[in-house]
């Protein structure tokens, strides 16, 4: 899929870095503006960390794609049904609890939105694209002349044949 990627990885801290690497490469391939790539990577980091920390599965799923023109969507699944969490407002000296606060701030700043699936298994975030980012489509391969020479030529249509020739 060139309009996105969908990967499963172990529910381990090292997977956050791998998800960021994969997302950065895909975003650059699809010509997502650099300042938006930073937002995508922050959202992925926080959502993956939450999925690893709070999920009960051995794996997480990360999906990033362009579902429609001008929109980039991120989803991280922990496959653990639960009540969707809410944004916390930790004190200045708290060491954690800022993940969803950051996702909320990034989405709001970019004009996007975020949330969870009804069963709490999937966090999602949509971010508008300020430019027409698109993934390049691979060019059709040039025909191999030696191969095409071996393709039988179509015979003229037999008017009595029941088959339609296109």
Given the structure, what is the number of helices? 4
The order of strands across the largest sheet is 1-2-3-5-4
Biggest sheet, open or closed, and with what strands and sense?
5 strands, antiparallel
Helix-residue proportion? 25-40%
Quantity of strands, as a count: 5
Write the layout of secondary structure elements.
Elements: E1 4-10, H1 13-29, H2 34-54, E2 59-68, E3 71-77, H3 99-110, E4 113-116, E5 122-128, H4 145-148
Antiparallel strand pairs: 1-2, 2-3, 3-5, 4-5
Helix pairs in contact: 1-2, 2-3
Task: Please outline what is shown here.
This protein has 166 residues and is of the alpha+beta class.
Please tell me about this protein's structure:
With 166 residues, this protein is an alpha+beta fold. The protein has helices at 13-29, 34-54, 99-110, 145-148; strands at residues 4-10, 59-68, 71-77, 113-116, 122-128. It has a 5-stranded antiparallel sheet with strand order 1-2-3-5-4, covered by helices on one side. A hairpin with a 2-residue loop joins strand 2 and strand 3. Helix 1 (13-29) packs antiparallel against helix 2 and helix 2 (34-54) packs antiparallel against helix 3 (99-110). It is globular. The relative contact order is 0.17. The model is unreliable at 139-166 (pLDDT under 50).
Protein traits:
166 residues, alpha+beta, five-stranded antiparallel sheet, 4 helices, 33% helix, globular, disordered C terminus
């Amino acid at each position: 899929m060139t309009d996105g990627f969908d990967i499963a990885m172990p529910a381990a801290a090292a997977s956050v870095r791998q998800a960021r690497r994969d997302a950065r490469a895909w975003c650059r391939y699809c010509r997502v503006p650099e300042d938006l790539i930073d937002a995508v990577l922050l959202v992925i980091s926080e959502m993956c960390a939450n999925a690893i920390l709070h999920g009960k599965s051995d794996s997480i799923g990360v999906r990033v794609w362009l579902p429609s023109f001008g929109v980039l969507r991120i989803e991280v699944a922990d496959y653990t049904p639960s009540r969707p969490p809410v944004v916390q407002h930790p004190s200045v000296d708290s060491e954690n609890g800022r993940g969803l606060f950051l996702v909320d701030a990034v989405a709001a700043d970019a004009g996007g939105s975020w949330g969870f699936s009804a069963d709490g298994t999937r966090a999602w975030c949509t971010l508008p694209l300020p430019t027409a980012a698109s993934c390049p489509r691979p060019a059709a391969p040039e025909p191999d002349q030696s191969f095409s020479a071996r393709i039988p030529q179509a015979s003229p249509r037999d008017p009595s044949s029941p088959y339609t020739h296109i």
